């Protein structure tokens, strides 16, 4: 990225409104992905197959929520609004997460008849884990220096998430016929959404043009190489071309599942946004 | 006691910071954890730069408040500014030798120095020093710790993740 000039601080970034616009779009994508998926992980509390899995998902959700909070704070410095408000007060059409992130854990509600699908959780988190790893590696070269630094920090924590998810991926793939069949069914479900994860939304050209992150094709190619290896080493057939959902999450189009998630997540905050915690 | 020269005040600030403990591991101070990057005092304004361990650790805000409470009453201090910085990144290598001993005495094995995430890591039991241990859960009661079990003395124990 030597043709780009580096931007060291939020103040410096704010001198170029186009740069800030592109940067904000990218930050919302990364922050919202982690924020909503952390919530989906938290919904597993008390429902995971074993207490150790409860502990693990709680810890990972806490880390991911922390990553999202750090990115929302970065957005606050860039003039997007207060970090807490960005998390709790935005309407669903302001969210930039991919649709696969907001999909529910299964049918039912965590508090009422939850029929959650563990295989879907492992398939979704494993493949998101590969993607996040690649996104963080790419962000480490971002022209926005505070983001490059944050990416390095997140990578060291993310490593443990990937290790955990892949351990479970292997476990399901090499276990009973039932476990394998469930994993394959879950992968099929994930596959119909996964293509959207690599997209950078409407500001894609300027995001890449400003050297904030590598382009969509580059990221998806790297993801495909890593995922092919993972599938091959676990004896999983490559499912072929992936799909994209009808809604464009990266452009603010979402399903009702997101609206519901945000309303549950921010219920307490919205009661009194001025309360101090 | 009035410390009007800035040098003297900084010395006192470091002494006081030594008393600010990690709320989840109360035997170890933030200094021993390697979390204090800089502490400066100028015209009554004390600025402390803290390196966060795990980004989402809920103890960070508690530590921030504890620093404030500890330094605010010092004579001559008008304001305490605590900020979190990401450069240099905190890594588990920053924990001091003293800090490592204290962690062990608390039943938490510190990661070896120079250990990168993903490196094989032989963990000895903090109670009986046996190498016959197994990892039960990569995650534990806090984001920074894993749960292990000693097959020799049959005690569960914790280890701090290497990051």
TrEMBL record, chain A:
It is an enzyme of class 1 (oxidoreductase). Keywords: Oxidoreductase. The gene is paaC. Pfam families: PaaA_PaaC. It comes from the Bacteria. Gene3D superfamilies: 1.20.1260.10. PANTHER family: 1,2-PHENYLACETYL-COA EPOXIDASE, SUBUNIT C (PTHR30458:SF0), PHENYLACETIC ACID DEGRADATION PROTEIN PAA (PTHR30458). Its EC number is 1.14.13.149. This is Phenylacetate-CoA oxygenase subunit PaaC. InterPro entries: Aromatic_CoA_ox/epox, Ferritin-like, Ferritin-like_SF, PaaA_PaaC, PaaC. One of its GO terms (molecular function) is phenylacetyl-CoA 1,2-epoxidase activity.
Automatic annotation (TrEMBL), chain B:
Residues 116-161 form the PaaD zinc beta ribbon domain. Gene3D superfamilies: Fe-S cluster assembly (FSCA). Transmembrane segments: none annotated. Residues 11-82 form the MIP18 family-like domain. SUPFAM superfamilies: Fe-S cluster assembly (FSCA) domain-like. It comes from the Bacteria. InterPro entries: Fe-S_Maturation_MIP18, FSCA_dom_sf, MIP18-like, PaaD-like, Zn_ribbon_PaaD. Coiled coil: none annotated. This is Phenylacetate-CoA oxygenase subunit PaaJ. It comes from Paenibacillus profundus.
């Amino acid at each position: 990225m030597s043709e780009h000039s580096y931007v060291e601080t939020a103040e410096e970034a704010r001198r170029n409104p186009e740069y800030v616009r592109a940067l904000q779009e990218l930050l919302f994508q990364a922050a919202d992905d982690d924020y909503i998926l952390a919530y989906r992980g938290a919904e597993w509390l008390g429902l995971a197959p074993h207490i150790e899995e409860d502990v693990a998902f709680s810890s990972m959700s806490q880390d991911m929520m922390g990553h999202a909070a750090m990115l929302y704070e970065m957005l606050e410095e860039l003039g997007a609004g207060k970090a807490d408000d960005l998390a709790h007060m935005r309407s669903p059409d302001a969210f930039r997460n991919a649709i696969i992130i907001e999909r529910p854990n299964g049918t039912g509600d965590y508090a009422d008849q939850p029929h959650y699908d563990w295989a879907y959780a492992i398939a979704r988190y494993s493949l998101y884990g590969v993607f996040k790893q690649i996104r963080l590696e790419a962000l480490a070269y971002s022209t926005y220096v505070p983001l490059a630094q944050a990416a390095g920090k997140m990578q060291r924590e993310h490593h443990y998430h990937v290790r955990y998810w892949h351990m479970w991926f292997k476990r399901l793939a090499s276990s009973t016929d039932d476990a394998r069949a469930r994993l394959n069914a879950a992968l099929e479900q994930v596959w119909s959404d996964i293509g959207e994860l690599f997209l950078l939304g409407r500001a894609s050209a300027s995001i890449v043009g400003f050297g904030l992150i590598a382009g969509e094709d580059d990221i998806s190619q790297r993801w495909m190489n890593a995922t092919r290896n993972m599938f091959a080493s676990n004896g999983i057939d490559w499912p072929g071309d992936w799909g994209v959902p009808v809604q464009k999450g990266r452009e603010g189009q979402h399903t009702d599942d997101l609206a519901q998630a945000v309303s549950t997540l921010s219920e307490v905050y919205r009661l009194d946004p001025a309360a101090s915690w | 006691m009035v410390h009007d020269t800035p040098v003297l005040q900084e010395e006192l600030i470091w002494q006081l910071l030594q008393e600010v403990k990690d709320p989840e591991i109360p035997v170890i101070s933030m200094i021993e954890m390697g979390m204090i990057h800089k502490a400066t005092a100028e015209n009554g304004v004390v600025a402390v730069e803290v390196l966060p361990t795990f980004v989402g650790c809920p103890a960070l805000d508690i530590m921030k408040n504890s620093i404030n409470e500890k330094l605010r009453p010092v004579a001559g201090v008008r304001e305490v500014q605590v900020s979190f910085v990401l450069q240099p990144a905190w890594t588990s290598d920053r924990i001091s030798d003293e800090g490592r001993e204290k962690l062990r005495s608390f039943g938490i094995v510190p990661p070896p120095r120079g250990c990168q995430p993903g490196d094989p890591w032989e963990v000895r039991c903090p109670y009986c020093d046996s190498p016959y241990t197994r990892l039960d859960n990569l995650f534990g009661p806090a984001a920074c710790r894993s749960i292990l079990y000693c097959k020799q003395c049959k005690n569960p124990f914790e280890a701090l993740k290497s990051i």
